[in-house]
Write a structure and sequence with these properties.
It contains twelve helices and no strands. With about 290 residues, it is mainly alpha-helical. Helix 1 crosses helix 12, helix 8 (about 185-190) runs antiparallel to helix 9 (about 195-225) and helix 9 packs antiparallel against helix 12. The protein is globular. The relative contact order is 0.12.
């Protein structure tokens, strides 16, 4: 029997790092350096002097109201995204549905979770706007006028519905691996002991999935809190949420105070950073349980 040859190592180990150079440059230019710039500029005057005035400016009534509205929007869409996404993920992974349906759902979720900005806003205007396809069909075929019932796409409710288009697929993508980690022996043992399907989910599955669910909620919250392109394209300046005010401040359309915009961006970094840190910690704990 021929002895197995050990893998040949590169004569120049530094060459092995060349593959990550493009990623490192991209992260440096579009993530690390801009973040450092935002943090520094948040504590500077236009002349470059140190100040806490920009941070103090975040207590202005319009910014506080915008922050509360953004928090409300993020919490609502994260909650409904988690509930609906979990239900769909359970159906396609544990419900005995055909395998092709699971593959199709995951493929669609991968596309829809990244579909945002102007294209998503236009799609919803063409579907649920005043003259959108669904709006007209409901009015002409079923006599249901959603506009007369108070629904307005260019409003908080309309923006929340639009956000759910990418929140629900994102939940499906991140909770499906956790559902796959539920061992078949657990449900068999529960059934052997006389537990119903509802009791299994309440006493076994959900406690195991709880860290993953909380982590997913935190990630969806951060995803909604930082979204700006969809809100700008759909509502313009008619809805004051933090990303829209930030965009206006950086462009100088309102108060021409970009350093206040940097402070707003710094606040958003803190909020989304905390949410992502919670997601990472809970995700690690959930993976430890599911191993």
């Amino acid at each position: 029997m021929t002895a197995k040859m050990p893998p040949r190592r590169s004569e120049h180990p530094i060459l092995n790092w060349f593959g990550v150079v493009p990623f490192a440059l991209f992260a440096l230019l579009f993530l690390i350096l801009p973040t450092i710039r935002i943090v520094i500029a948040s504590f500077q005057t236009p002349e470059g002097l140190f100040t806490l005035g920009n941070i103090a400016g975040l207590s202005a009534p319009n910014i506080v109201n915008a922050t509360m509205l953004s928090l409300k929007l993020s919490l609502i869409t994260a909650l409904f995204g988690c509930l609906v996404g979990l239900a769909i993920a359970v159906a396609v992974t544990r419900g005995g549905l055909p395998e092709w349906l699971r593959g199709g759902m995951l493929t669609f979720s991968g596309v829809a979770s990244n579909f945002a900005g102007v294209p998503l806003a236009f799609a919803f205007i063409a579907t649920l706007g005043r003259l959108g396809l669904i709006t007209v069909l409901l009015r002409d075929w079923f006599g249901i006028n959603i506009a007369a019932m108070g629904f307005n796409l260019i409003s908080f409710t309309g923006l929340a519905v639009t956000y759910l288009y990418f929140q629900i697929p994102l939940m499906i993508l991140i909770i499906t691996p956790a559902l796959d980690g539920l061992k078949r022996e657990w449900i068999e043992a529960a059934q052997t002991l006389g537990a119903s399907n509802a009791q299994y989910w309440r006493m076994v599955a959900l406690p195991v999935l709880w860290p993953a669910l909380l982590g997913s909620f935190a990630l969806l919250f951060a995803n909604a809190f930082g979204a700006v392109a969809t809100a700008m394209a759909l509502t313009g300046s008619s809805l004051s949420i933090v990303p829209i005010i930030l965009f206006a401040q950086i462009r100088g359309d309102v108060l021409n105070d970009p350093h206040l915009g940097y402070a707003l961006a710094f606040g958003m970094i803190v909020v989304t950073g905390i949410a992502n840190l919670i997601y990472i910690l809970l995700r690690v704990r959930a993976e430890r349980w599911l191993k």
